[in-house]
Every structure is written in structure tokens, then in C-alpha cells.
Amino acid sequence: MTKNLGNAKPSAPAKEINPSLFSKAAPALFPLVVAALGYLVGRHFLGF
């Protein structure tokens, strides 16, 4: 195994990474999308 000498350059500086609004909102919207798809599939195939 090699030792971590701490002199490696980071691949991208932290200040240049700006998460978009979609990437912030996607985890919150995911359960709603799953529920909506489940409702539509259930209504189509099971006749809810």
C-alpha cells in the first residue's frame, strides 16, 4: 500500500462547484415522482 503524502492536487477546487437548483430539488421530488408513477400504473393496470 502507498502512503498518503498529502501533496496531491484536488481534481476541482471546491469554490468552482456550484450545484444547480435541480440537483438540490431532485432528492425532495423523487418520492413524489415515484408516487405519481405508481398511481398512474395502478390506475392503468389495476383499475384504481
Quick rundown:
Keywords: Membrane, Transmembrane, Transmembrane helix. With 48 residues, the chain is mostly helical. The protein has one helix at 21-45.
Describe the structure.
- This protein is an all-alpha fold.
- It is built from 1 helix and no strands.
- The protein is elongated and about 65 Å long.
- About 0% of the residues are buried.
- The model has no long low-confidence stretch (mean pLDDT about 80).
Largest sheet: none
Query: Could you list the spans in which at least 5 consecutive residues all have pLDDT below 50?
Result: none
**H/E element order:** H
What is the rounded Rg? 22 Å
Q: DSSP strand (E) fraction?
A: under 5%
Structural class: mainly alpha
Which percent bin holds the helix content?
40-55%
Question: Which short descriptors sum up this protein?
Answer:
48 residues; mainly alpha; elongated; transmembrane helix; membrane; transmembrane
Q: What topology does this entry show?
A:
Blueprint: H1 21-45
